[in-house]
Structures are given as structure tokens and as C-alpha cells.
Amino acid sequence: MAEISAALVKQLREMTGAGLMDCKRALTETNGDIEAAADWLRAKGILKAAKKADRVAADGLVGIASSGNSAALVEVNSETDFVARNDMFQKAVRSIADIALKNGGDVTKTQHAPSPDGDGTVGEMLLRLVAMVGENMTLRRAAALSVSDGVVASYVHNQAAEGMGKIGVLVALESSGDKSRVMDIGRKVAMHVAAAKPLATTTADLDPKVVEKEKAILTEQAKDSGKPANVIEKMVEGRLRKFYQESVLVEQAFVMDPDTTVGKFIEAAAKNLGAPVKLKAFVKFEVGEGIEKAASDFAAEVAAFTKS
After folding, report:
1. Are 146 and 70 in contact (CB under 8 A)?
2. Would you list the domain boundaries of the chain?
3. Per-range mean pLDDT, top range of 79-83, 160-164, 229-233
4. Using 50, 70 and 90 to split pLDDT, how confident is the model at 308?
5. Residues with Cβ < 8 Å from 228, sequence gap 6 or more?
6. pLDDT value at residue 17
């Protein structure tokens, strides 16, 4: 077998625009023949996919898979909601969620896991789907939760199909109590998470950088009052408590009963259950959150299309 040098891989990348790993594999498959490697990339749909890789994919679906005391959450992006409603795309999301569950929510391991159709990896399966459908698609992120004794409840908002939608939430509860009743508690908390968007499970779980930033902002605001330093300190403490009540899951007012907090709801549910219930963790994915979407001028796009 011919040696596949870095220079040869670079040359194929510059020629085709495909990714480095794809170029290396193509050259390996074709024994270093660069022209044959380019044809191999084209046959696999990778060249067509590479041309779309720079396009923003901010739509798509969140998918959930669960088994026993574990569940996984994935976000697979597409460029439009039209593709997100496509059966092929939804089938891919479902299979990727299943694979993520087997890989403990590790997105890299999931990306490089064997494709469910038996041809290459999950990443390569997505590339073939890109070539077929004509939109950029990416496996953006994955996560998983598990408990030794208890449940991992889930909730999907704006459901497009079973186990997938625009917002997905997992909530892990540890409890020796009746699992169906614990699952009901977890689902209610998951619905709350989807609506209230907490930043952390408890105050201790908050990112210290987030707390420091908030404290600095509140301090500057309090200084504008012209009050003495000791009064300003108390003002900041009070406003920081309000920040915790708005941002920390167990401190938030429960959406189904605003007169109590999520923490108090779980305590009351545990008492009614007759067994302790511990909120271990939660994960929430919302499609496209944090992705900067390019402004689109539909009229200009139509005008450009008619001139082409």
C-alpha cells in the first residue's frame, strides 16, 4: 500500500474542499491515487456535502433515546424546518440518539461510531444525507444522564415525531420509590425546565464566572444609587438572591404551582411517595440556541434565482 503523506492529503483537500480525515480515507481506499480519491469522495457524496459545509444549519431537531435508568439527548441541525420534517432526517436523528445512548452521550464517539446502515460512520451517514437532501446537516451536541436507582424522565416540546422536537429535556431523579410515580414527578420537572430555562440545578452548580459577572453588574447598578458601601453590599446580596431564584432550578417558582419552588415540589412529592427523591441533574437542548443565524432577504434570493 502506498504511503499516504500529509502533503498528499493537503493536496486533495485543496483540490476538493473535503475534510482532512475524509481526504485521508479516500487516499487510503484508492492506494494514494489522487484522481481516484477525488472520484471516491464524489461517489460517497462528500464533495457535494463539503460545498454546503459553510452554510449555517440552525434548524433541525432534538432527539431522545432511553433505556432502563439511562437516557440520551442529541441535537442534529439542518438549514430549514422543511428538512427537519423529512422522514429521512427524522430516521437519522432517531438512530443517532440511540447510538449516543450507547456511547454515554459522547458526541465525538457518536460521530465516529459505525453508521446504522452499515456504511462507514455516523458522520459519513450525515454527509450522504447532505448530498441527497441538499442542505448542510451537523450533529451539534449530545449528552446523557443515568442513575443507579431511580429514573431519567424526559420531555419534548413542539414534538415533530415520537421522541423528537424543538426542545428536549432530561431530568435524573434518584429514588427507591415506585418508578412510575417517580417518572411522573420527573416529567413535570422536565416540563418546567423547558419553560423556565434554568442555568443550573442548585446554586452550588452555577458557573462561578456567571455568578461573578452577575455580581459585578449588580454592584455597578447599586453604586448608581449613591448609597454607602455597606448599604450597596446588602443591595447586591438581595439582588443576587433574586438572580438565584430566577436561574437555579430548585429555587425557581414551579410553573405548575407558582406558590412553591421546584425544590419544595420535589420534597412534597417525595413525602407523598413515601420515599426520598433526589434531583441529580438535568439537561436541556433547544434547537439552534446560541447559533448566529444570517439575516435572509427572501426577495433578493428570489431575484437572484430568476437571473440565474
Report:
1. yes
2. 6-43, 59-172
3. 160-164
4. very low
5. none
6. 65
Q: Which residue has the higher pLDDT, 114 or 302?
A: 114
Grid look-up 428536549 returns: 168
- Element housing 75 (H / E): strand 70-78
Taking only the tens place, the pLDDT of each residue in 126-136 is: 888 887 777 78
pTM beyond 0.90: no
Nearest to 75 by CA among 50, 111, 41, 39: 111
Rounded CA-CA distance 64/287 in Å is: 13
- The Cβ-side half-sphere exposure at 2, using a 13 Å CA radius, reads 17
> Which has more pLDDT, 219 or 50?
219
SS3 263: helix
Query: In terms of CATH architecture, what is 59-172?
Result: 2-Layer Sandwich (3.30)
| Three-state SS at 62 | strand
Rounded CA-CA distance 19/145 in Å is 32
- Cα dist. 98→22, 162, 164 in Å? 24, 13, 12
Whether residue 274 contacts residue 282, with contact meaning beta carbons closer than 8 Å, is answered with no
- The more confidently predicted of residues 267 and 303 is 267
Q: Is the domain covering 6-43 a CATH 3.40.47.10 domain?
A: no
Buried b (16+ CB within 10 A) or exposed e, 122-157: bbbbbbbbbbebebbbbbbbbbbbbbeebbbbbbbb
